[in-house]
Write a structure and sequence with these properties.
about 50% helix; Rossmann fold; about 625 residues; alpha/beta; TIM Barrel; Alpha-Beta Plaits; binds ligand C2E; 3 domains; elongated; binds magnesium ion; five-stranded mixed sheet
Length: about 625
Amino acid sequence: MHDAAGLTTHYVANFTDLSGVKDAETRADWLSHFDSMTGLPNRTLLQDRTRQALSMVQRAQQPLTLMLVSIDHFGAINETLGHQTGDQVLIEVARRLTRSVREQDTVSRLGGKEFVMVLPGTDGAGAAHLAGELQTELAQPCTLQAQEVRVTVSIGIACYPQDGHDFDALLKAVELAMRRAQTEGHNQFQFYSAEMYQKVLERESMTQALRQAMALEQLHLVYQPQVDLQSGQVCGLEALLRWTHPQFGAVSPAQFIPMAEQAGLIVGMGEWVLRRACGDIRRWLDHGMAVPTVSVNVSPLQFRNNDLLAQVRAALDDTQVAPGLLYIEVTEGALMDDVPRNEAMLRELKKLGTKLSLDDFGTGYSSLSYLKRFPFDQIKIDQSFVRDITSNVSDQMLVKVIVSMAHGFGMRVIAEGVETEAQCEIMRNSLCEEIQGYFFSRPISFQDIEALFLQHRQLPEHLLRLQRPQPTLLVVDDEPGILAALKRLFRRDGYAILTANSGDEGLAVLARQRVDIIISDQRMPGMTGVDFLRSAKKLYPETIRIVLSGYTELQSVTAAINEGAVYRFLTKPWDDQALREQIREALQHRQVVEENRQLEMQVHNTNRELMAANRQLQDLLQQFRPGGVARPTQS
Ligand code: C2E
Ligand code: MG
Ligand code: MG
């Protein structure tokens, strides 16, 4: 309010108390999502939570279980003890159910006497275990209105993804399973599918056996060599765990590692692996071998356990192995739950002197900001990118991007699961440093590794970066006479010559082997020469592609030349001397490209080393900052 002179003298404020309205709104909102009697989420919220949980486990490739718990003979309780006691029973069951599950699980009331639980990360075996616990827990008598009441329950279990992919399907499955539990006589649990139950039983007996595996000496390690693409030499080994059981035979780690994690055995087992790997390094050193780095896989559960550091230190100390020989391999999944803690753990491991490798890169979150933050020395490109790389252009692009990004952070790159020469060649061209896979060697025993070193086994010469490989020609023509003639002609010049009868066959050859020059007929049954060369260009852009044709279908060929799919167009019949000259010239062109690439590689390498040095420097600086807090720099 203003006075006559226009000066502000007072303020007027107007208040309305909205808390009543707000409370009512909140209550209405609450009622639409929660069951008023038990305070548990209702069906609407259950549906929501299940959807969220499903999308979470899908990403993390985890299982999920839905469980329906129905109170047996609830009608009789209501009738004999009264509705009020009936309500008390519901509240008590809700309380006990909630008490029995983990934080990430949801317990909801579906209505009536039925409760549904969503258990992300729990598989069939875990659900069976929990169902047993619930039966015991709920069977404990409770005193309600001065009367002792005991209840039993019938439980149905359905598992994602086997029994359904969405909420509706899983709910239907779990209802059916619960009905079966009721018709089979109540007070029990049933799985939706019989196979599921069978699997649970098998798994249980396998888990039992796994508990004794270490004591019975059924575990051993094999080692898979990793080779350097520049020198061709073995530059690392990955220790991989094996379990051989007298009855189950050789069980895959993909199967038993998750079991060991669930049964709480992984920390002990992981410690055994660390000790054994360091022990093996010691024995190799004692045998006079030039031991390369050895990678040990560490499960996310080990990584979350604070004993890991002490275990690594003890394994190294007891065997007198230099920490720099040991790589610790972790997957992204292990790092994302508690980033600050995990970052600190990684730094502690680095301080010990071990190296760090990020396994299965590309399958998890692959968050760039975290990648930059974590002090990894190496990332391993997951097999799934390598598997189809010879035929999948977008995988090729991805690999190139991953490599240049990793180099930007000063990390080395190794490709996993390299099975063919063509895959190896693509990795080399993508400037990847190392490969690991069946192409060079499967995982082999301690002794076989020693033999491999004695024989100085290496990658084949022609695959090495610094060597000039034997020029390779691929000739594609549907006429055998022409193939034979060209083969005779070029053999004199010392080329390796491959042949194919059609475009499809040509592509198959390219997927297997490195080729420098492709000479293709134009008119062939199936794919035309130009179309074949177009595909070849997409997948193997570095090849030099030539059409040799009796027909001058100018239009299609001109188009192909203009878009760069074809380097030269030559006509049949050809002049031997001129053709040889053309090929020689094309090869020279190709060699210039190759030399350029090698230069690029060297620049890349130097850059990567610079980046790595930079990161180390930054880490050092960080250590010397008091309390890790940055001080303003004066420069
Ligand atoms: P990983 O660490 O990604 O190991 C690579 C897997 O790829 C190994 O399977 C290896 O045998 C396989 N492999 C290598 N080269 C090729 C190839 O050219 N083609 C194909 N198709 N596969 C190839 P493996 O030995 O069955 O191990 C599977 C997974 O089990 C490992 O994946 C790792 O995650 C886990 N694992 C193995 N040993 C240990 C261990 O000691 N501790 C822990 N925590 N996990 C382990
Ligand atoms: Mg690994
Ligand atoms: Mg891997």
